[in-house]
Design brief:
It is built from six helices and four strands, in the order ααααββββαα. The mean pLDDT is 84. The protein has one domain: SMI1/KNR4-like. Helices cover 30% and strands 13% of the residues. The longest helix has 11 residues, at 2-12. It has 179 residues and is α+β, with helices and mostly antiparallel strands. InterPro entries: Knr4/Smi1-like_dom (IPR018958), Knr4/Smi1-like_sf (IPR037883).
Amino acid sequence: MAESLVARFRERIRREPTVDYTWQEPPIRPRPPLTPEALAAAEGRLGFPLPPLLQALYTQVGDGGYGPGRGLEVLAEGEWSLVAHVEAIRRPEWPRRFIPLISWGGLYRSWVDCSAPPYPVWFDDPDYGVEGAPESDYFYPQAESLEGWLSEWLDGADLWLAGKRHKSAEPGTAPDTAR
């Protein structure tokens, strides 16, 4: 399935818009793909490999700038990159293989648990706003699988509406920090 998703993304970025957020100026555009060496360096900084689908997207489609919301985050270049974000928040209580993949604006993000297939997607809701609540309570399951989630977007689903504020999730369901 990953190969067909990569092909669908390649086709999708040939036409506009390449992201959901079309009102942003300057427009968000796909960046050139990463070299295998650049991907390996980014994974080295993270301390773990990305899921195979993300490896393929970053090296065969582009280094961010396409996909749901504001598009996949740039992997490692610059202070706003996915790797820089992970390095900035890394601490013992944080899930080790948890990465911010998509920004929805503000502090809203969709994260991927890279610890094991099917690589579930989580929504970070900073408006949860219960004073004293642990940070893990701000996360809700968004999709069981990264491939399924991205496939839904390619099929036309509005993943912002599908993922926003799943209050039915039990508080504290964020991924285990031991992974």
